[in-house]
Amino acid sequence: MPNKQPHSSLDPQVLIRQVLNVMPARYESWPEAVRTLAYNLAAELFIIRNNPFINPQIVQKSVFARFNSEKGALSEKYCQTIAEGLERYWEEFAADQRFRGKVLQKLRK
Question: How many other CB atoms are found less than 10 A from the CB of residue 103?
């Protein structure tokens, strides 16, 4: 499968903490294959907040489709942690977008 995540100069531990809400020590204790998958998913989803030229829904669909295709290889513990982190990050982004829309609407009045 082609590598779809964007280049990121952020420290992987910082990215994982911001997107998945997983502390560095916990992330470092994960098996390498799980860390790689978690990092790739987090890096791809991270761009929705930092690149105004991409379509967030396309990124979200891509990330969740990849996660769903690979979650069968994860233990329940890793699967749940990654799923909850991705969902939380997406929901926070969506809430921020709704708030932004309300603010812009009020400013236009």
Answer: 10
Cα separation, 79 vs 67, whole angstroms: 9
Query: pLDDT tens-digit profile of 20-36?
Result: 999 999 999 999 999 99
Asked if the model's pLDDT at residue 1 lies above 50, the reply is: no
- The C-alpha atoms of residue 3 and residue 98 are separated, in whole angstroms, by 31
Helices assigned H by DSSP within the chain? 12-20, 24-28, 32-50, 56-70, 76-107
Residue type present at position 94: A
Rounded Cα gap, residues 74 and 36, in angstroms: 12
**Long-range CB contacts (< 8 A, 24+ apart) of 21-25?**
21/84, 21/85, 21/88, 22/81, 22/85
What is the reported pTM?
0.86
Looking up tokens 């609407």 gives 105
CB atoms within 10 A of CB 8: 16
